[in-house]
Structures are given as structure tokens and as C-alpha cells.
Amino acid sequence: MSIFSEFREFAVKGNVVDLAVGVIIGAAFGKIVDSLVNDVIMPVAGLVFGKLDFSNLFVVLGTVPAGVAHNLADLKKAGVPVLAYGNFITITVNFLILAFIIFMMVKQINKLRKTHAEAPAAPVAPPEDIALLREIRDSLKRP
């Protein structure tokens, strides 16, 4: 079997296709959560805690050259080492929200699987030939 045919067999398996769909949906969902955190939650949290933008919270770890503005973008551009903990806070909140949403989705899926497994299966009618054989058997038993 050639490498191409093995790869094609692997790629068209159901699990691989399901995984690809999951990754694509996950990437799109990640963008939605990222926008929710950056555009909705963090501005409100910044307002509550007195800062309007967490992503600009940083600590300068080196000396700032003359003429460089004291903001994160300019300091990074100048090569000054900075500890950008505000960005870390934003990304951590993003992760926690995404993890919680995924947890809730998995919890609901497991709940649906449990109720589906507990549901009694409808009795399946026997095939026609079996039904006819049973009728013949029953008619032979009658006197």
C-alpha cells in the first residue's frame, strides 16, 4: 500500500473529519470568546478596578532610553524589557471563560447521552419469516 493511499484512508476516517470540524469551529469560537473578553468583560472590569485597559498594565524591568514614551508599545519597540502582566490577566480571563463554556457544553452533552442511554428502546418487530414460522408453530400446537 502506498503512502498516498494510506494517508487517504487515514484522512477520510470519521474521527479525523470530526476532529477537523471541531478544530475549525473551536478556532471560530475562540475568536468570539476573545472578542467577548477584550471588548465587553475587560473594559467593565477595568472600570470597576480603576484602569480602563488591562492590556497596558506593565512593569519596566530595564532603563528607559531618553525620548521613548512610557507606554507598552513604544517600550517594546525600543527593546526595553517589560513585564506585561495586564496582557497575561486578559489572556487568563479569556482562558477561564472558554474553559467554563466548554465545561458547560460537555456537561450538557453527557446529560443528553445519559438520558438517551436510559430511554427504553422500542421493541423491534421480528422479521417476517420468523413471524410466519411462529404462526406455523402455534397452529401446529393447537388441537
Features of the shown structure:
143 residues, mainly alpha, 5 helices, 2 strands, elongated
> What is the mean pLDDT?
81
Tally of strands:
2
| Class derived from helix and strand content | mainly alpha
Widest β-sheet, arrangement of strands: 1-2
| Largest β sheet strand count, sense and barrel closure | 2 strands, antiparallel
Describe it for me?
- It is a single chain.
- This protein is an all-alpha fold and 143 residues long.
- The protein is built from five helices and two strands; from the N terminus they run H-H-E-H-E-H-H.
- A two-stranded antiparallel ribbon has the order 1-2.
- Helix 2 crosses helix 4.
- The longest helix has 36 residues.
- The protein is elongated and about 115 Å long.
- The N and C termini lie far apart (66 Å).
Secondary structure: elements and pairs:
Layout: H1 3-11, H2 14-49, E1 59-60, H3 72-77, E2 82-83, H4 85-118, H5 128-141
Antiparallel strand pairs: 1-2
Briefly say what this structure is:
With 143 residues, the protein is an all-alpha fold.
